[in-house]
Amino acid sequence: MEKFTLLESSMVPIHVENIDTDQIIPARFLKATDRNGFGENLFRDWRFASDDTPKSDFVLNDTSFSGSILVAGNNFGCGSSREHAAWALADYGFKVVVSSFFADIFKGNALNNGILPIQVSPKELSQLFSLISDNSAITAKVDLEAQLFSVPAANLRIPFELNAYKKMCLINGYDDIDYLLSQQEAIEHFEQNRS
Amino acid sequence: MKKTLFDKVWDSHIVSSIENGPDILYIDKHLIHEVTSPQAFNVLEEKGIKLFRPDQIVATADHNVPTEDQHLPIQDALSRKQVSQLTENCEKYGVNLYGLGHPYQGIVHVIGPELGVTQPGMTIVCGDSHTSTHGAFGTIAFGIGTSQVAQVFASQCLLVNKPKSMRVTVSGDLHPDVQPKDVILYVISKLGTDAGTGHFVEFAGSVFENMSMEGRMTVCNMSIEMGARGGMIAPDQTTFDYVSGREFAPKGDELERKIAHWKTLPTDEGASFDTEFAFDAADIRPMITYGTNPGMGIKISDNIPSSEDASFQKALNYMGLQAGSKLLDMEISHVFIGSCTNSRIEDFRAAAQYIKGKQKSASVSALIVPGSQQVAKQIVAEGLDKVFEAAGFKLRQPGCSACLAMNDDKIPAGAYCVSTSNRNFEGRQGQGARTLLASPVTAAAAAIAGKIVDVSAN
Ligand code: SF4
After folding, report:
1. Which listed site, A104, A156, A184, B296, has its alpha carbon 20 to 30 Å from B56?
2. Can you tell me the ipTM of this complex?
3. Do the chains contact at B145 and A109, CB–CB below 8 Å?
């Protein structure tokens, strides 16, 4: 996994609540047996009409918005456990998703793929949406070490929470699997001592 | 200290805890399927590691399989590759696979309980969010991402933070026409789709105590739709009777010992939950959804509510529905009875009982998809297939089918489908398809009438 420390970027807003994993990556694109190329079909049915022409009213097709920070409505990533949703976001180039709420499984999947989910208050979220709509080029800074999300131009500073273990993993680019492999003895011990 | 059912099962599976971090949770059973496992097997290859406990894995092909002509090679090249890759991976790593053509094949959350793989007090995971189904047995069962599938492959463990606990109590007597699906749709409509986030939910109260195992599975299946990691119901005699005698269930003295242990699992009197909700069973009537998340549900006889919220408007636009209008008597063109929510024998018995002697509306295409080969066999053994065929329903072979429309079973754009599945997201049953979630009896009734009817009205 890639290491994550500091990031400064403009933001892409999707002002929709309850964005589920079927919207992030529709099921018909889950037939691949590797992890690559999912970015192409990120938000497929919002991005493209059924004849594959881009829908001009969707933000990813609007050149005034770009960047590696996605700002989305409440309860982002609900629905299926498909990690393909996180792969699609990462493959497309997103490194941070900001919302006022994340579905549990999505949050875990995101962190396991080097994407940082930042939870802000509903008020801060609507503030962010209006800042972006006023100025689509406004940039935000993410300082993982300090656990701080900020929009310097607007004097907005939002500290965010992150599990200490996950923070360590992101900063060092560690995977859970490496840690678990190092615990094999304890795991075998647990197995032997069960009734 | 007084403990909840959830605490008891969780605490007994902790290998160790990282300070200020997650627990290492031991996983008893790992269920896998063709869609979310290939990339996890790749991780083993890339890292050059072994599969730690192949005997604790059960594999099946369900998400991406056709529901017709399963004896023939799969037509779609990508689907065929995904299914054959599962077969190759299982052979290579020594994993027990119930693939296409096997008498035990079926939707992963239907076959686990049916084979006795699912037992009270266990921890069970699967790369699928509806793993919550198995919680009906007093099991901690939850869906995981593919990275976590790889972690369980490598270590039979997961790094997870202990969720908070919630109890949803529903007591009193249910209206005779209310089904378990209506109960859970009602609860989600009241609490919303994010009420359970960060929680494991215990469903308690007389309604669940009196429910069959199939009904309990329907309820726990949809606990994920209220945002929870999973749902649980305390194991009792109904649970023990269901598990006993199944293929992989403990037998003889071992079973007696296990049952004695399972009896210690229910939540201690006076144990506390982080969050509690209670509902009166008498308020529940047959339910249906009108929007694009499972929380957007109403009593069938009610009007669609209104809201200024933009996401709400977007949902109604997608559905082609108006706030304030009625769903009752609205024409529909498709019916799907299946999915891990409602594809067990009890669901088909209930549907058949309603359908018997009636004829499907000529304007409706109605699909019946059993959850497993064993359920399919039982349908024939009980003569339900005759009932369905006589009424004009199409009976297919087991799989996820139109629940997520990865195979050919897609609902056309713009069409209304009354579905017994669990998600009414945009495009879930096919691009542009409009899903109305309901119980098997409500779905059957819609197929007969060609429109939405309230089965409790007469
Ligand atoms: S039936 Fe639907 S919800 Fe259940 S496992 Fe299959 S795709 Fe998922």
Report:
1. A104
2. 0.91
3. yes
